[in-house]
Write a structure and sequence with these properties.
The protein is of the alpha/beta class. It folds into two domains: 105 residues, Cobalt-precorrin-4 Transmethylase, domain 1, CATH 3.40.1010; 118 residues, Methyltransferase, Cobalt-precorrin-4 Transmethylase, Domain 2. The protein is built from nine helices and ten strands. Helix 3 packs across helix 4, helix 6 crosses helix 7 and helix 7 packs antiparallel against helix 8.
Length: 232
């Protein structure tokens, strides 16, 4: 059995009782960073063998994990924070597991994109999560142009070092939409700043953002979408 186990995105108390039970029962825990996951396990007094699986892992590493599953091991796959496979390594392992008919389960748990969406105050009836935008301005603008007519609320992860430039590219392509920037969700210095893209650009140009960032932006023609929802 492969168990997909979400971990806290900040506050360790957000782990579920079921997640702890699965981690305690696992024969092997697969993670992105063994040091990070080791700290989490020590906090909950769990001692298990760890194996790393990250974006640079070889196909041989994935196949080795599959063989362990086929050999009868219970394996838990965790993320450094949040739901595994969401802007996170692990897809190739899941692909092999599905194709070979190996049993798997997915546990619910903390997820930064949805948490930020609710905190943003923007429409939650329909949304699109898009991971990290291109690190280059030209690539970002091309992507934003493709999404310009989307009515859904748009959600991105971003590095704090690119936050202002990304907000500027969004404003250039989409206009001055309503948006929110959430950072350090569930942690001591959690913050969600809300306003127009221009207001957020001004705020974070004057203040260096730190920590994990989620940007939430209103979709196009939200009034039209709200009217459709209310009629429905």
């Amino acid at each position: 059995m492969l168990s997909i186990v979400p971990t806290p995105i900040g506050n360790l108390r957000d782990i579920t009782l079921r997640a702890l039970d699965v981690l305690k029962a696992a024969d092997l825990i697969v993670c992105e960073d063994t040091r990070h996951t080791g700290n989490l396990l020590r906090h909950f007094e769990i001692s298990k063998p760890l194996a790393s699986l990250h974006e640079h892992s070889s196909d041989a590493k994935v196949l080795d994990l599959v063989k362990r599953l086929e050999g009868g091991l219970n394996v838990a796959l965790v993320s450094d924070a949040g739901m595994p496979l969401i802007s996170d390594p692990g897809f190739e392992l899941m692909k092999e597991v599905r194709e070979r008919g190996i049993a798997f389960e997915v546990l619910p748990g903390a997820q930064a994109a949805v948490t930020a969406l609710v905190a943003s105050g923007l429409a939650t009836d329909s949304f699109v999560f898009l991971g990290f935008p291109s690190p280059k301005s030209a690539g970002r603008k091309k992507e934003f142009e493709r999404l310009a007519a989307y009515e859904e609320t748009l959600i991105y992860y971003e590095s704090p070092f690119r936050l202002v430039k990304t907000l500027e590219d969004m404003k250039e392509v989409w206009g001055n939409r309503e948006a929110a920037v959430s950072r350090e969700l569930t942690k001591k210095f959690e913050e969600t700043a809300r306003g127009t893209l221009e207001e957020l650009i001004q705020k974070f140009s004057a203040k260096n953002a730190i920590g994990e960032i989620v940007i939430t932006v209103s979709g196009a023609n939200r009034k039209k979408l709200f009217e459709r929802v209310s009629r429905g």
